[in-house]
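Tutorial handout. Part one gives the primary structure; part two gives the three-dimensional structure as tokens.
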Amino acid sequence: MALHSISAQEALAQWPLEDALTSAGQGPRVIDARSPSEFALDHLPHAHNWPVLNDEQRVKVGTLYKQVNPFEANKLGAAWVSENIAHHLHQHVQGLQRDWKPFVYCWRGGKRSGSLAFVLGQIGFSVRLIEDGYKAFRQQMLLDLQRLSQALQWVVIDGPTGSGKTRLLHHLQQHGAQILDLEALASHRSSVLGHWPGVAQPSQKHFDMKLWDALRRLDPAQPVFVEAESKRVGAVTIHPDVFASLQAAPLVNLQAPLADRVQLLCADYAHFLEDPSSFQQRILALQPIVGKQVVQHWQALSSQGEWSALVEDLLLRHYDPNYQRASQRLFGQSGEKKPSARTLVLKGLDDARLSQCAQELMRATGLAASRPANLPNPQAR
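Part two.
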């Protein structure tokens, strides 16, 4: 039998950077034995879900445990666990090679993962069973977020709405710089209108896990560029240790002409042009701030297709004043901009100018820009 218990701290230090499913005979490096709903809420990076009990079975066993007795619950649970493990052996294991060495975990107690790991170990695989499961790993991950965030050299890109911050991040990445795209991790543009059409945000727990997975891949010896955000990105919250590190970092202020910002925002939020009713519903969230009459004016402009006029008015009435207040509160120093802040004035927001800006910024931080890859950016919006 090749079954080894490993602490959550040891597992975290050994965690793979990439999945192993690259060729025949290689199985997933990480097996999550929890139910599908637990897995959907959050799971460890690269985990594949092999439920030992499905959601309905887990509820029934738990109810039997509380309302009857543990013995009856264990009998029923054991029957279902055996059936489900047999299914995984037939479905997933038959083609695997002997050198497969997975991590296996469940929630905390270890009964579900222990049962699966025992059978896999009896076959002859070298299995690493994570002690105290997902719960212990998450605790260690949250502690590691503090260490990682404090070790990295952050450069925060600030600027009013529509000044090209996210696009500049992607140009920096294409030139070889390290970036952290918080909006991509959160699947949200971090504003009242910032939802991604058809894309749900991750749970808070899964956002934390994705953030840790992104930070552990970064090189502490090189700067990391990140967009200035508030503490919340849509429905999720940036970990306080990470946010504190960003607040203390050097700041780059982008400035761009109003007309260019309007054009960029019309392109980025083009989905509202196809569905004005969606905009009209979401903009109601600003009514307590700007008043009913202003919101009705914006709704009327959207119905008339006057999107440029609408975006300009939104910027002047709400987003620009709000940016000034929020930026000073979150990233200022004694109510003023940091002495370390650098201002970049853009005379346009097209790709050529943003690429030039990225190269200038990299030179200012001691980085040599590489030639951009001629590939689409999967995070580009």
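Part three, for discussion. The mean pLDDT is 92. The radius of gyration is 25 Å.
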